[in-house]
Design brief:
single chain; 624 residues; mainly beta; Methanol Dehydrogenase, Chain A; 2 domains; 5-stranded antiparallel β-sheet; 11% helix; oxidoreductase; coiled coil; PQQ_b-propeller_rpt; Quinoprotein_ADH-like_sf
Amino acid sequence: MAILLLSLSAVLASDWHSSAANGDACEYPNCRPEPQIPASRPPPGGNWLGFGADVYNNHWAGSDALVDLANVRNLTTVCQKKYEPGLSAAPLVEDGIAYYNTFGGLLVALDYATCEEQWTLNVTELILKVKGNSDNIVATGGALASRSTPVADGDVLYFGTLARALVVAVNKVSGKVIDTLEIGNHPLSVLTQSPTVYKHRIFFGVSTTESGAPAADPSYNLTHHGSMNAVELRHGRLALVWTTHMIPPGANFSGASVWGSQPSIDPIRNQVFIGTGQLFSLPDEFVECQDANKNLRVQTEHLANEPCLPRNVYQTSVLALDIDTGEINWYRTLGALDAWNAACIPEFLGGPPGTPPGPNCPKNIGNDTDFGMAPAFVLGSEYTPGQKDVIVAGQKNGNLYAFSAQTGTVLWAVNPAPGGLEGGLSWGVAIDQDTVYHTGINTNRVNFTIFPSNETISNSVFGAVNLKDGSTKWQTAAPRNRTSIVMPVVVNDVILTGTTGDWAEGSLYAVGPGSFIALNKFTGEILREDVLDAFFHAGIAAVKEYVMFGTGYGGLEPAHNGSFNVLKIGSTTPASGGDAGDDDNDVELEDKKAEVAKGKADLRKKIEELERQADDLDRLRDEL
């Protein structure tokens, strides 16, 4: 893995400041109290409290999750619910109930221990009933559904819809709708990002399907601007608290959507973190600026930030916003001016391969290197750079970064996988106390070499890097030359992830079915792989002795029927087969394997420390 050399001149300077918490009280029963500084993992009790597990968006299972190296092979399916089409977001899990949205337009509350639905909400009917700013429902691609993970505050669930970009508040016990609020204000606005709830305020990024419109209609005028929003439920009505635009209203740019994973929270500085997408179009004067500067050394060698981009156009950026006001505390734009839309690759929407770019494709075609995930927040410790509070985020060009949570300074940057149309790195990473786990998608099927096997592969890769400095710990190729768009989850000493499907030459999409995969988090060894019933693009939740995920898909990609699946640690029959009387021997063997893996990891850390000490001695010798 190459360590990226980042010039200090290419990092925008900005000041950090904080503001007081709003202190508003939740007006509904059973609100979860917010600790002053939440722990790095969900609270005990079988909780998976949003897309990224909790407010830090780190996909790290709670301390009472039981799946580990000793028993992961004994996970067996105990519940499966079929849906047409399926689902892609992780469930919210709380109080013995899993809440999830399907691409068929349902919000489901499922008692996962009994496999019985408690209630369902028809999201499609809800969207059709609401009258608002976005009257052109068909233009959204018919996505009369939600693809995101709900969040809960007390007895209220919150989620966002695709068509109409609605924020929806629902009674968690009954499934009855409390209120809806449209926050997109554009016919093609959608809410693809899962929300985060913190201090009784709900945070939503606004995205769009507009980037696909120019391929279908060459005369289409691109106008959508991404935004970040805070919403509160006040006396039974949803109210917009603030909106922060990623492009100034009235500016002749489009794009900079906020679309990936789930915003993360910094409770110490009272700020929320997001990542943004590329631009769709540029004003003519900025195209002229690009042409005038593209051969300058500062541009060709990336010695400075893009000279043609105004500071208040936040494309392909990571931002920290004040929770109370939406004011931008700091931002970092990673990469050059990046304007791209589907007219640049017409086969994306079904055109023949090799078709020239359409008239709406920008003259200087960008690389579509947006952030398809929000950062994960990590409290400072001996395992973080300089013991600082940091955020970690991956980009579709394959870069992975750690930033100072206070200033946005880039602390390390690495490139664990090639970039591509879907990534690169998208959807999210998992982080435990000292390691960042990621899936390198490699949509474009570029050859690259993985560590430590030195194997050359051209498909997806699962990997782990050191949280302190970004150095590679291990990389494992997705089995059977398959593609993975599945973000990892870390639970005890195991990584849970999967493959999406097989690579199909000439197609932009993987072909299902996918597979569920468990890896040893210390070594990357694949512990099990189970072929699933459908295409697998989903988030995974792990609580107590259970693991849950969906299969299938919908939206812009071809629809795939799928299911919601509940796996449970088996008490007698190993998932791989065999006699029940062999269980004790199997567990003992797995315990020994876990001990060996832990010993190898400890030895690797000692070797790394000795290598650092040797480097220090070499530097001292040079100075003398």
